[in-house]
């Protein structure tokens, strides 16, 4: 598992961890059932506080990306999208697209960027 953390970023570290794991799942690098490092091992590897990793793992659990088992650790859990997830994603995308349009970006450019990201995540050529 390759997690890139930018300690100079304004984005909190636990959010960066969450985002990197979600990207790993989306790209297929972290498959269903993949065993994530323990909170302690992950924190030591990155050089951060265990509570930061724990916060990221709990967020991923609440969003349905991983399952946590006290005896066996954290595992990727790929599940079907729920209606609640779909609504949340729609709301989040609406804000992002609105921001792009408000800054003068063209619809075609937005669609092209989304297509490029999807292709990148799936390892497809454009």
TrEMBL record:
Pfam families: GntR. Residues 11-79 form the HTH gntR-type domain. PROSITE patterns: HTH_GNTR (PS50949). InterPro entries: Tscrpt_reg_HTH_GntR (IPR000524), WH-like_DNA-bd_sf (IPR036388), WH_DNA-bd_sf (IPR036390). One of its GO terms (molecular function) is DNA-binding transcription factor activity. Keywords: DNA-binding, Transcription, Transcription regulation. This is Transcriptional regulator, GntR family. It comes from Clostridium cylindrosporum DSM 605.
């Amino acid at each position: 598992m390759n997690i890139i953390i930018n300690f100079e970023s304004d984005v909190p570290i636990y959010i960066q961890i969450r985002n990197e794991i979600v990207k790993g799942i989306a790209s297929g690098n972290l498959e269903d059932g993949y065993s994530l490092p323990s909170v302690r091992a992950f924190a030591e590897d990155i050089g951060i506080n265990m509570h930061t990793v724990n916060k990221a793992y709990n967020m991923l659990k609440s969003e349905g990306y991983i399952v946590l088992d006290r005896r066996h650790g954290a595992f990727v859990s790929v599940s079907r999208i729920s209606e609640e997830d779909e609504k949340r994603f729609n709301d989040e995308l609406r804000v992002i697209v609105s921001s792009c349009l408000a800054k003068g970006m063209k619809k075609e450019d937005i669609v092209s960027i989304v297509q490029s990201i999807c292709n990148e995540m799936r390892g497809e050529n454009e």
